[in-house]
User: Fold this.
Amino acid sequence: MLEVVPRFIEKYFILITVLLSGIALIYPPSFIWIKPHIPLGLGVIMFGMGLTLDFGDFREILRKWHLVGLGVFMQYVLMPVLAVGISFILGLPAEAVIGMVVVGACPGGTASNVIAYLARANVPLSVTLTLASTCLAPLFTPVIIYLLLDKQVHIDFWSMVQSVFWIVVFPMLDGLILRRIFRKRLEPLLRFFPSLSIMVIALLIACIIGLNQKTLLAFPALVLLAVILHNGIGLVAGYGLARLARCSKRDARTLAIEVGMQNSGLGVALAVKHFGAVSALPGALFSLWHNLSGVALARRWKNAQDSE
Assistant:
């Protein structure tokens, strides 16, 4: 009987996500209370990932340093160029173009590690890419924004590093250490962490929808289309270029997720601070969309791997 609940959640997690999102859209207070707990939720998931990994998995990444370089290159070259190109083709207003560029210039989002986990991609590689792109963000993001928008912005390096450490590195290390010490005792519990991760992600997406209800109900169709194209092309190009570089399917999926999923929270914060609230619209929509597309993609790739 204990297997029934996690099996049900894993089978219907897209339906669960859509249902909770619909409730959040109708009545935002049902989920916006989660906002202060978003870092905790991500930390819980990263702890669960740590319990499923070994330190040896990260040693393997040392032999794949070129993949980290490829991922960072695509993150900071491909995504900003796509933002400009899509905005030009769709003829977006100036404020929306600014928002697209700001999101495109941001590092990979923490949620990408969760999606990689659910998709059974290379989690250690995903975490390493997130850390690398985040540590480079205080340098690359302002430079890209200045080159494309002729506007100087400032990013607090230590604040970003501390955030990633407490949300990603610390809980994952805890999980790794506990598994190393109590491996046999923890085995029965590991079966439940994928379903727990799914529920946390579904709740976080619902929270994001509740927080952006007015934006979504206004339905800025052209900007939403731009965000969907930006995310979608980033995912496809990330996977395709990785395969051209002779990466395995598992690593290519990881690079696709890292490239296609941006730190949209940082994008919103930078847009509001330096350009105004209207320019934050693409970041807010990206925050919603890349989680939904990521969950759907994780389900597809997980099923594909199970059938292999």
In short: Residues 123-149 form the longest helix (27 residues). The radius of gyration is 19 Å. The chain has 16 helices and no strands.
